[in-house]
Design goal:
The chain contains 13 helices and two strands. With about 300 residues, it is an all-alpha fold. It is flat, with a radius of gyration of 30 Å.
Length: about 300
C-alpha cells in the first residue's frame, strides 16, 4: 500500500493550466466608433467646396515663405526677451525686498490676466498716451517709433516674460536649500550661487515648460496680424484677398505651423533628454532607436521572448 502511494504522484502528469484571455469588447466598440467619426470627417472635407489643388501651388510661394520666416523670427526674439526678463522677474519675486517682490508680482498678475491681443493693441496705440518719445539723446513721434515689428516684439515678449518668471521661479525652488547654504559656506555671493549652482540644477525643471512655451509662441505670433506685422497669417490673408482662396490659404498656413512646431518639438525632446541624464540611471530609447529595433525584429521575423 505504501509503495502504491509513493508511485502515484509520479505516474499522474500535472494538469496543464488553460489561460483564457480577457476579451475587451469595449476597446473594439470604441475603435469602430472613432474610425467611423474619422471617415465622416474625411467625407465632409472631401465634399466641401474647397479647391485643394491650390494648396501645393502656394505652399512654397515667396509671400508665404516670407511670412513663415517672419513668424519664426519674431517668435525667437520674443522668446529671448521673455526668457531674459522672466529670469529677472523670478529673482525679484523671490527677493526679501518688499518693493521688488511687489513690483514683480504686479507685473505677473497684470500680463497673465489680460489677453495677448489686448496687449498688442495697447502697444500699437501707445501714442495716445505718449505722443512723443523723448529720451534726451533721441526724440521722435511715437507713431514713427512703434512700428508693427516693435509692437509685436514688445507685446509678445513682455507677455511671455510673465509666464517665464513663474517657470523659472518653480525651477529655482526645486533646488534643495542645502545647495545654497553650502555655496554661501564656500564664500560665494548670492549672484554667484544663483549662476553657478542653482540655475544649472534648475534647468532640468525649466527646460520642458520653456520648450512648450516656445512652441506656443509660434502659434501666438499669429495675433501680430492685428497690428499689421507681416507674419504667416497676414501673408496668407493678403494672398486670399486677391485669389479668393480663403480657406485654402488657411490650410497652407496650417501646414507651415505644423512643420515648424514639429521641428521644434523634436529639438525639445533631445534637449530634455540631455538635461535628464543626471536624474535617470538609464535614458529611454529615442524614437529612432525604437524604430531601428522594431525594423530588426520585423526583418528577422522574430518576436522577443516573454520571460515566464
Amino acid at each position: 500500500m505504501t509503495d502504491i502511494l509513493d508511485k502515484a504522484p509520479a505516474d499522474v502528469p500535472p494538469e496543464q493550466i488553460k489561460a483564457i484571455p480577457v476579451r475587451h469588447y469595449g476597446r473594439w466598440v470604441a475603435g469602430v466608433v472613432v474610425l467611423g467619426l474619422v471617415v465622416l470627417v474625411v467625407i465632409a472635407f472631401s465634399n466641401a467646396k474647397i479647391n485643394y489643388s491650390v494648396v501645393p501651388d502656394y505652399l512654397f510661394d515667396g509671400t508665404i515663405l516670407s511670412g513663415a520666416w517672419h513668424t519664426l523670427y519674431i517668435s525667437v526674439l520674443a522668446m529671448v526677451l521673455g526668457l531674459a526678463l522672466g529670469i529677472v522677474l523670478a529673482v525679484m519675486r523671490m527677493s526679501q525686498n518688499p518693493v521688488t517682490s511687489t513690483v514683480s508680482w504686479f507685473y505677473i498678475w497684470f500680463f497673465r490676466g489680460t489677453p495677448v491681443l489686448v496687449q498688442l493693441l495697447l502697444w500699437y496705440n501707445i501714442s495716445l498716451v505718449f505722443p512723443i518719445l523723448n529720451l534726451g539723446f533721441y526724440k521722435d513721434e511715437m507713431n514713427q517709433v512703434m512700428t508693427p515689428f516693435l509692437t509685436a516684439l514688445l507685446g509678445l515678449g513682455l507677455n511671455e516674460a510673465a509666464y517665464m518668471a513663474e517657470i523659472v521661479r518653480a525651477g529655482i525652488q526645486s533646488v534643495d536649500e542645502g545647495q545654497t547654504e553650502a555655496s554661501h559656506a564656500l564664500g560665494m555671493s548670492h549672484g554667484q550661487t544663483l549662476r553657478r549652482v542653482v540655475l544649472p540644477q534648475a534647468m532640468r525643471v525649466i527646460v520642458p515648460p520653456t520648450g512648450n512655451e516656445f512652441i506656443n509662441m509660434l502659434k501666438t505670433s499669429s495675433l501680430a496680424y492685428a497690428v499689421q506685422f507681416n507674419e504667416l497669417i497676414k501673408r496668407a490673408t493678403d494672398i486670399s484677398s486677391t485669389s479668393l482662396a480663403v480657406v485654402e490659404m488657411y490650410f497652407v498656413a496650417s501646414i507651415w505651423y505644423l512643420f515648424l512646431t514639429t521641428i521644434f518639438s523634436i529639438v525639445q525632446y533631445y534637449v530634455e533628454r540631455r538635461y535628464a541624464r543626471g536624474s535617470a540611471r538609464s535614458l529611454p530609447p529615442t524614437p529612432l532607436q525604437r524604430l531601428r529595433r522594431n525594423l530588426r525584429q520585423w526583418g528577422s521575423f522574430r518576436r522577443p521572448e516573454v520571460a515566464r
